[in-house]
Each structure stands twice: as structure tokens, then as C-alpha cells.
Specification:
A four-stranded antiparallel sheet has the order 1-2-3-4, with helices on both faces. 43% of the residues lie in helices and 21% in strands. The protein contains five helices and four strands. It has one domain. The protein is α+β, with helices and mostly antiparallel strands. Strand 3 and strand 4 form a beta hairpin. The radius of gyration is 24 Å and the shape is elongated.
Length: 163
């Protein structure tokens, strides 16, 4: 084989590799976690254990959702949420005090503990309007993309949470 034939074989081999790469790129993108709106809209079932949304959610939060985005734009991008409504939530960064954690104060009855937790929520919680989108399951609990809206219908924050 001469040098010209080797060069031609290298060229053909490169061409085949590029074509194969282009053929498998759409599959790889979804596997690697790039947001795919069509796939997102197709998988809105809370009971779907291995939902492909789980692989997309980080790219979605990094490159597609934005604080200040209007409600209609969120629904246009992600479809209707599985749950939308007002929930009483603790402010970001605030958690139960140690005195309310089950393992620290086991001498409280379950009713006393529930009363204290309810009082803590009454004093520190505030109503948040949330859109919840199922993204799959952890080991035993469903996971959701939570999108918190302002009183003016704009995105205030978003995160992934376990229910």
C-alpha cells in the first residue's frame, strides 16, 4: 500500500467515525443530561421511577429557568405542573430546632411534638406559591423540581426536593 492509499483510508475512517458520532449524538445528549423539552413534556407521571427528567433537571436549572421568568413562560417550557398551589414553607436556610427533632427529645409524645412543630411553622413559616414537576424517585420517595413564584407571577427561586 502506498502513502496515497493510506491517506485515503484514514480519510474514509475519519468520515465513518464522524457519521457514527452524528448518528448517536441525540441519544448521548439525552443520556448526558441536556434538557429536551419534548422528552420532558412526555414524562409527567409521578409514579415513573426512572424518569428521564432526573438527568435533565440540572441543565434545565443551569441554562433554561431564570429568576424573574413569567409563569406563562415556565408553563410554556415545562408544561402544566403536577401540583400548583400555596404551601406554608420555612424560609430558605431555616430548619427545625434540635428540640423538635425526634431523636433529641424522645420524651415528648407524638401529639406534643406535632403541636410544637405546628407552632414553629405558625411563627416562622410563610405561604409560598409553588409549581411542582415530578422528576423521578430517590430510593423510596418521589423527587420534584419546585419552582417558587412571587406574588406577581414571576419565578423567585427553583430547586429539587424530595417528598
Amino acid at each position: 500500500m502506498n502513502a496515497e492509499q493510506l491517506t485515503q483510508q484514514h480519510f474514509m475512517l475519519r468520515k465513518k467515525i464522524i457519521l457514527l458520532g452524528m448518528l448517536f449524538l441525540p441519544c448521548a445528549c439525552n443520556y448526558l443530561g441536556y434538557f429536551d423539552q419534548a422528552a420532558w413534556l412526555k414524562h409527567n407521571d409521578e409514579n415513573e421511577k426512572s424518569n428521564p427528567r432526573a438527568r435533565m433537571v440540572q441543565d434545565l436549572m443551569d441554562h433554561h429557568l431564570r429568576k424573574g421568568m413569567p409563569h406563562d413562560s415556565v408553563v410554556g417550557l415545562l408544561g402544566l405542573p403536577s401540583h400548583e398551589g400555596v404551601e406554608t414553607r420555612l424560609p430558605k436556610g431555616l430548619s427545625y430546632p434540635d428540640s423538635l427533632v425526634y431523636t433529641t427529645n424522645s420524651n415528648l409524645s407524638s401529639q406534643e411534638r406535632a403541636d410544637r412543630i405546628n407552632e414553629f411553622y405558625r411563627l416562622h413559616g410563610h405561604p409560598d406559591t409553588l409549581l411542582l414537576y415530578p422528576i423521578g424517585w430517590s430510593i423510596i420517595d418521589p423527587m420534584f423540581l419546585a419552582v417558587k413564584m412571587t406574588g406577581h407571577g414571576k419565578v423567585a427561586d427553583y430547586w429539587v426536593e424530595e417528598h
